[in-house]
Amino acid sequence: MTKLKMGRHTSAIKESRKNTVRRRTNTKIKNEIKQLIKEVNKDISAKDLAAAQKAIQLAFSALDKAAKKNIIHKNNANRKKSRMAQKLRALPA
Questions:
Q1: What is residue 22's predicted lDDT score, i.e. its pLDDT?
Q2: Does this model's pTM top 0.70?
Q3: What is the largest CA-CA distance in the chain?
Q4: What is the four-CA torsion angle of 37, 57, 80, 76, rounded to 10 degrees?
Q5: In order of start, what are the domains of the chain with their CATH numbers?
């Protein structure tokens, strides 16, 4: 590698590149979670029990995976899951 100007470190430049990639990945996963939660809420408001149950499974899975990878905090994931399940239970059978 060529010599850099004073005050720049190759390790800092590499960390910056890694952070950019991680930020992009985390943002993508968070947006997917938001879309899944919106879909669950849409199905619940439409009182479509079967579709809501299917959508809630996908949302729970995505939330658990994100919490496992520390993209979101585990308590945040559990809170979102609890609120969705509470809305689903309120639907008439």
A1: 97
A2: yes
A3: 69
A4: -110
A5: 10-90 (1.20.58.110)
